[in-house]
Amino acid sequence: MTGAGAARAEQAPAKINLFLHVLGRRADGYHRLDSLAVFAGAADRLWAEPATDLTLELAGPFGAALAAEPDNLVLRAARSLAAMAGVTPAVRLVLEKALPVASGIGGGSADAAAALRLLARLWGAAAAQVDLTAIAATLGADVPVCLAGKPARMGGVGETLTSAPRLPRFGLVLVNPGLPVATASVFRARVGPFSAPAVLPDGWADARAMAADLALLRNDLEGPARVLCPPIDAVLEALASRPGCLLARMSGSGATCFGLFPEPEAAAAAAAALARPGWWCWGGAGQAA
């Protein structure tokens, strides 16, 4: 975007579930979860500028994957905020989609959260009186944590947030095999007993201590996702084989997997080494609390 509108932009960082326990299933069919979420430097980017009506343009390497969506979460967020603030949703939005779609890293939720933050600034005093967290909860279980944009323990169906343990400096590698995975399908494929909530310390002194504790936990959706999307196996094997990788695990409902490393520099080097045709890779610093 060019001109004055170019200054109105917001990042939509990838959300990573360092562990994910499925605790049970509610009467309405949704599952109760326990997870620790952090954010990566990999992000979509959303721009906004005043216009005569509400429009959304898609750009970036994964923009085309959203073209067939009849009602993008970004537009739903914009309309919800406008209705609550009592303003006309007249804005041109441009979403640069840099994160893979349906990949277990909360891309759509992060985009919706970015829209709420960005449009609250654009629409000023009227929107400033609106409870953005309440709107976020109506848009999806991951939108509240993405709105907060900081490490958090996720409960309920994902919408209940409490403080995360103190996190050390650590490196993070993200790898997606280039295949979308439907969250609903993964939950339907999950079998077996439910898990107990995790017991976490108040914090970790370093990345090795954090990885050691996380290795005692799991992602309960990893098994069914690997059945539905076998290339996840190759991604996890490739991550685990990189020198310095402390833990390799799938995030969310997949298919994106992550590797924890002692330092961001090691993670960046590992991501470069893992790059191959069809795979999306990113490496850098994990967000510390």
Structure, described:
31% of the residues lie in helices and 27% in strands. By secondary structure, it is α+β, with helices and mostly antiparallel strands. Strands 1, 2, 3, 4, 5 and 6 form a 6-stranded mixed beta sheet that branches. Strands 8-9-7-10 form a 4-stranded antiparallel beta sheet, sandwiched between helices. Helix 1 (73-85) runs parallel beside helix 2 (107-122) and helix 1 packs antiparallel against helix 4 (132-139). The radius of gyration is 19 Å and the shape is globular. The relative contact order is 0.18.
Question: What is the element layout, followed by pairings?
Answer:
Layout: E1 9-25, E2 31-50, E3 54-59, H1 73-85, E4 91-96, H2 107-122, H3 125-128, H4 132-139, H5 143-148, E5 152-155, E6 160-163, E7 171-176, H6 183-189, H7 207-214, H8 222-228, H9 231-241, E8 247-250, E9 257-261, H10 264-274, E10 280-285
Parallel strand pairs: 3-4
Antiparallel strand pairs: 1-2, 2-4, 2-5, 5-6, 7-9, 7-10, 8-9
Helix pairs in contact: 1-2, 1-4
The overall average pLDDT, rounded, is 95
Question: What count of structural domains?
Answer: 2
Q: Looking at the structure, what is the overall shape?
A: globular
* Uncertain residue segments: 2-7
Distance between the termini: 33 Å
Q: What's the total helix number?
A: 10
- Going by helix content, strand content and strand pairing, the class is alpha+beta
Counting DSSP E segments of at least 2 residues, the number of strands comes to 10
The biggest sheet amounts to: 6 strands, mixed
Indicate the proportion of strand residues. Answer: 25-35%
Helix content: 25-40%
Tell me the series of helices and strands, N- to C-terminal: EEEHEHHHHEEEHHHHEEHE
CATH class of the largest domain equals Alpha Beta
Q: What's the Cα radius of gyration? A: 19 Å
Q: Which fold does the CATH topology of the largest domain refer to?
A: Ribosomal Protein S5, domain 2
